Amino acid sequence: MESQTYAIVDLETTGHSSQQGDRIIQIAIVLMKDWEILSTYTTFINPEQRIPYFIQDLTHISEKEVKNAPTFEEKAEEIYELLQDTVFVAHNTDFDLPFLQAEFKRAGLPNWVGKHLDTVELAKILFPTAYSFKLQDLALELGIRLANAHRADDDAAATAYLLKACWQRLLALPLLTLEQLHERSFQLKSNISRLLLDAIHIKRTQQSTTTTDHHFYYRRLALKQPPNDGEDIQEVIDYPVTFQEKKQLFEKAFQHFEVREDQFKMMDKVWEALINKEEIMTEASTGIGKTLAYLIPSIIYAKKYHCTMAISTYTSHLLDQLLQEELPKAESILQNKVSAVIVKGMDNYIDLDRFCDLLEVKDISYDENFTKLQLIVWLQDTETGDLSEVTLTGGGKYFVDKIRRMETTAENRRRKPTFDFYLQTLHACKKADLIITNHAMVLADLNRPDPVFKNVNGWILDEGHQFIQAATNRAEKVFSYSKWKHLFGQLGSSESSGIEHPFYLNLVSSHTMSTRQLTALDEQFKDLTSLFDKSILALLRGLPSEKTKKSHHKQSYLLSKLNLQATVFKEYSYRLNQWLSLANYMTNAYLRYPDELSTKQKVHLADWQYQMNELQVYLAEWDSIFLQQIENDAAWMELDLRNLPGSVHVYKRPAEVEDSVAGIFQSFRQTAGIIWASGTLTVPKNSRFIADQLGLEKTVPLHQFQAPSSYYSGASVYVVEDMPDIQNVSQTVYIESVAEAIVQTVLATNGRCFVLFTSQDMLRKTVDLIQETGTLDDYMLFAQGMSSGSRMRLLKMFQRFERSVLFGTNSFWEGVDVPGDALSAVIVVRLPFSSPEDPYFKARAARITQKGENSFYKLSLPEAILRFKQGFGRLIRSSEDKGVLIVLDRRIETKSYGKEFTNALPNVPVKKVTLDAMVLELGNWYNS
Which of 217, 509, 792, 885 is 20 to 30 A (C-alpha) from 430? Predict the structure, then answer.
């Protein structure tokens, strides 16, 4: 077979659209054959226009460098000839190839014709667990040298080596896997099928026989060796009791180890609680090394007493950080391997039977086919079966929902599974030193009749304050009009264009239902969808008739204030229950004859069951929200008046969770140590604020640990004293002043700022104003809710650009780490009080008022101080960091409670200055 010549191309341009006049400023072409680089062509191109500053910042290509370079027209034919008889390769061909074609056309040349290959598409399939598919992120993960990202020559070379890495990955896959990939590759956007075919030819010379059994995964997985259950692990050392013993352990593991006395003190308190089977709270400031302070004693305890410790945290990000970063450090300190198992909810794991059945279905969308390709490769390597390992794109998330492990998939399985990842994980827990999980899983599990964690001998509840939020989220019920309508569309009917109705499958006639029964089911379903719309119209008729200003389309209403007709909602609940009973009866009739169903029919039937289970969950939420009135619950409706009824959402949350949280661990008290750990458990004048919300007894002690003052030597706080009083001016006036303060700060620090808001509306208006003035056009502005992407993606983009500003709301106040020079300033636009109009806050405040207490001092102020402490925590993430916290809300100095905010911070200087004086100081500090 003749070898292909690959032309790996990268362009740097003045912008994203050649149609809008953007031009190339650099082009590089790497020619590769037989997986070796033959030659590299690179040249700057004079775009004959200004290069935007952020492009210069991104590419480090200045206007001076391109000033005397040739124009594209001068180089067009040379470039065109280089690409002849090659496969065009780029990292995102959807950008590079159309842009180049447009430039060829502008230069009077015909379209380039040939095959193309996209390394983004290819890498997503072959490296499905990569955190990011950006070139520089992949290069870092695969060990590919990329000295200057966003320079065409370096990027093209890195893309060439990425292509080679993909080829090597293909050759490492089993032949059957390659054949399955090739079979499904013709739906892809680039010409990957030829590459797969080349790999298949090579593999076939090495292997004479193949199999087409899609359940090959079972046999492969069943042959895997089970995880190490603790054999060959060294005997652990005794707990290091003295200061000197601890110091020696850490110094052996880390060069230039800096002793933090309070870290050692926290270790002792955790160890004592475990030994004495006590419950304690530990508040450790940033800089303590909190994670190692509880990991070291936990591991020693588990090994010394041959038992299992459970560590729970709040988010998946923190969970992964614990396993990948902190646990290896602990192993290095103790010179011991640790048997650790991550446990998540059942629906995080893949159901292999269901996946193999779905492999048989061919007539599918691009997104579904692409996700199958990713999963086929992923299954060769995964040890856990945790679907969150796969970085999904596009519509892949919907397909993955179909193959999640659930109780129903296990119950309805008619063949014995060869392998089950979820059961493997539960088995591994029995012999693990550490079980690592999250708060949501703990809450769900310990409420089950037979909990997974029932034999745990000690608990570490990291980010313990977030257990309240986790419990609230678990108890929350949500009605979404659009989700109900989407589910109705998926269930469809015999006349719908949705999925094939399972009761019209062409089954063996002796077992099918009568036509009368099928028709009745269909007619009842149509009646149900009609009755649903009538119920929602009745809900909307209860809204107040007041006119709303054009700028306030989004509204919220307490359900208790609406004139709801309960009989309408009862009627719908009754009718839907009847229909579900009949549908389940008929479904079970088919399930009795599984051998008479084709694979396609089984797939449709499984989809139908999944959707009916979803409808059962929706019905339970309907009953809870509209039919069950529980004292102290908060129930409210949110909608957008421009989109009715499509925007209708109804929420119901418990105003208090302390009883349910406290009850979760009742069976462990006196039999196991329980350690609540967090950086924010207290506020000035109320050290029991979080403890009370967790329902902890007054006898549970609180231990506080503080980093040395030198840790915060690079931090200071500015209160801008000539800002307008937020309570005495209009929002428009205040936003104008906020925008000016942000602009001046950004210019003084050269970017690298977080701007924290409490309102998405104020964030949007402020960003819009700044963009209108054009004062920060030379900076990259990333705004939550305005810029595309998740919180983590915005954070990554912010760190990538030197001159950048990140505008965020609630989720950016905590749990975001930006160590080093990537962050210079955190700007607090207003003190982070909850909105008094927030329905959930109203319900909680009302409960406190009913007890005769002041809801401001008991709830509003403490919560705001906790968020303020967390906002400061974004700034200093290591002892080398330096930065400033800038407060624009003058209430911190004019109100009697203002001191409580600054008192909650570590001992850092607080300066009250005018905006001009602050800008001058920042400029001197930044340039020093």
Answer: 217
Strands 780-783 and 804-808: parallel
Compute the distance between CA of residue 200 and CA of residue 170 in angstroms, rounded to an integer.
9
Q: Which residue has the tokens 């050269």?
A: 750
pLDDT tens figures, 656-714: 888 888 888 998 998 999 999 998 899 888 899 999 999 999 999 999 999 887 888 88
Q: Is 285 annotated as a binding residue?
A: yes
Q: How confident is the model at residue 816 (pLDDT cuts 50, 70, 90)?
A: low
Tokens (6 digits) for 897 = 């409670």
Tokens of 343: 């446990």
- Torsion sign (Cα): 869, 875, 881, 887: negative
Cα-Cα-Cα-Cα dihedral sign, residues 28, 33, 35, 37: negative
Active site residue 150: yes
114 labeled part of a ligand binding site:
no
d(CA 139, CA 132): 10
pLDDT tens figures, 378-421:
999 998 899 988 988 777 888 898 899 887 555 445 455 568 89
Interval 789-803: pLDDT, tens = 666 777 777 777 778
Q: Is the separation of the CB atoms in 826 and 753 below 8 Å?
A: yes
Q: What is the DSSP letter of 679?
A: S
Joined tokens for residue 879: 């002892």
CA distance 623 to 556: 21
Q: Within a 10 A sphere around the Cβ of 772, how many other Cβ atoms?
A: 9
Is residue 898 annotated as involved in ligand binding?
A: no
The C-alpha atoms of residue 20 and residue 331 are separated, in whole angstroms, by: 56
Residue at token pair 């970063």? 325
Task: For residue 443, give the nearest of 686, 654, 670, 701 by alpha carbon.
Answer: 654
pLDDT tens by residue, 491-528: 864 444 333 455 444 443 444 555 677 777 778 888 99
The encoded tokens of residue 218 equal 């079972």
| Cα gap 117→87, rounded to integer Å | 7
What pTM does this model have? 0.82
Residues 6 or more apart in contact with residue 500 via CB below 8 angstroms: 604
Q: Which two tokens stand for residue 778?
A: 């030379």
Whether residue 5 is annotated as binding a ligand: the answer is no
Q: Which of 150, 465, 501, 703 is catalytic?
A: 150
